[in-house]
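Hi Y.,

Following your request, here is the sequence exactly as I used it, all 315 residues.
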Amino acid sequence: MEKKGKQRYKLKNWSAYNQALINRGSLTLWFDESVVQHWHQPEKTGYRGSPMTYSEMAIQCALTLREVFKLTLRATQGFLLSLIQLLKIDVQVPHYSTLSRRQQALSVRLPRSASQAPRHLVVDSTGLKVYGEGEWKVRKHGVGKRRTWRKLHVMVDAQTQEVVAAELTANFVGDPEVLPDLLGQVDDQDKITAVAGDGAYDTVTCHQAIRNKGARALIPPREGAVEWPDDEEGAVHPRTAIIRRCAEVGEAEWKRQSGYHRRSLAETSMFRVKGLFSDKLKNRTFAAQQVEAYLRIGAMNKMTGLGMPESYPVS
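Below is the corresponding structure, written out as tokens. Let me know if you'd prefer a different format.
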């Protein structure tokens, strides 16, 4: 019997994708005219004291540059100073202490394209290290009691591969607890056809949250799962239908038929976040760590919007 080798793929849009990779480093992508126009804060804060000098858009732009080019706060200030001097723009540059302070309460807006087609969403989570103990120290002396990590939960549009919702939590927060909040971040006008997640999301709360959005739940039942009661109208619960279908054709075949395997795109997105930026968080406070994670997601979405590879299988 001939051993089947690993499936190989070729790109059909290499020229466009190659240009998209080049454009990721363009300063005009991250520091465009709209940011310059709204650089200074025109409104008062409503609190005592002088109004803010810089808008949230300016702070988000500066901190995004920090994440994209892997800078320290002081280096970010110097980077901005040289940038506005080269572009001859008449704006002030925030002090690095201002960036640090404003990051604590920054509300990050994730850039994402409008979707005309119904969204097929996939969800998963990954860990990001904090307080970073090195691999050598762990191997030599074991894990220290101060070592911890955060969980980054992402919800990805399988068609565009953009992250449409994200949340950073403590490491003890379970995936099912976060799914309703992720769905709440999706625009109400966006139609959702299906939400795919692994067996950890096989809970009453997750299934109900997905049904409230008018979507199908593509969640494999746990081992030994039993059927749930029918709806008040007498209709079979969607999870019960999945259990029966898995018993009929097998779980592997159900996954293939339902399109469950597109869930791997969530894992791909998390791998891209770590590859483009880091698997560690630099900031010490939880609020700043949340902003740091969301800035990375926002920057990755802008890179995704420039162009993604389109591949096809070859024998």
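The first strand starts at residue 8 and ends at 11.

Thanks again,
Q.
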